[in-house]
């Protein structure tokens, strides 16, 4: 579709009379960002431990946080 066709179509009214509301529950995801210096011993340990366990560092952090949560409960 050419730019002028898109512009023309954008100016045309939209008929919403047959529209339906989607009320499906959607999970909300939360992301946290951690930053470390590249020579941080914790980073080196995290990468080595994740490799030893056959997972990536994010999976390892999730497992470690889950374990800490269960111990705190």
What is the strand and helix layout of this fold?
Elements: H1 3-11, H2 41-53, H3 57-72
Instruction: Provide the structure class.
Output: mainly alpha
Quaternary status of these chains? single chain
The N- to C-terminal Cα distance equals 58 Å
The overall pLDDT average reads 92
- Round the Cα radius of gyration to an integer and report it: 24 Å
The helix/strand series, from N terminus to C terminus, equals: HHH
The best one-word shape is: elongated
Strand content: under 5%
According to DSSP, the number of beta strands is 0
Considering DSSP H and I runs of 4 or more, what fraction of the residues is helical? 40-55%
Which segments are poorly predicted (pLDDT under 50) over 5 or more consecutive residues? none
Task: Describe the structure in your own words.
With 73 residues, this protein is mostly helical. The protein has a domain at 49-73. The protein has 3 helices and no strands. It is elongated. The mean pLDDT is 92.
